[in-house]
Design brief:
Elements lengths: L1 E2 L3 E4 L6 H21 L12 H8 L1 H4 L4 E7 L2 E8 L6 E9 L8 H15 L4 E7 L3 H9 L3 E2 L9 E6 L2
Parallel strand pairs: 5-6
Antiparallel strand pairs: 1-2, 2-3, 3-4, 4-5, 6-8, 7-8
Helix pairs in contact: 1-2
Amino acid sequence: MTDHRVCTVVRRPGRAAAAQAGTAGLLAAYHLRTQAEKGEAVAGVDELPDRYRAEILDPGTAFAADVLLLALSGDTAVGCLVVTAPDEGGCEVKRLWVDPAFRGRGLAAGLVREALAQAAELDVGVVRLSVWKWRTDAIALYERLGFTVTESWDERDRLLCMERVP
């Protein structure tokens, strides 16, 4: 575990029960909100698609090969982001989420900057991400941090693909 000014890098979230519990709550909020925004709202975690439910139920296993970044307020996880393990010369940023009560404090930008630092340490050539087109605030953040729109690698409608060289 490495402490940073804005967030804490947790490389093995399964080893820290508090980190895993906080991460599960953040991932649940992320996935439930995303389902609602897609017009496919569900009543709770049990109704989410299996792959998303698996991340929530056991983030330590779901992201075992990846780097999980947490933004902390004291000992409470209030934001998260996943940097996937390098693959074909790049990595992907996924699951950026900050608790709505903590937004506007620069935590999302801090998490993305830390993700870029992690990517540089991993010596990858490109950092990729996908974001729903309606998440205009997130897109503006990514653009401010140097990401540009690129050809889509995902077939889902309304999904924007972006990348940046670290």
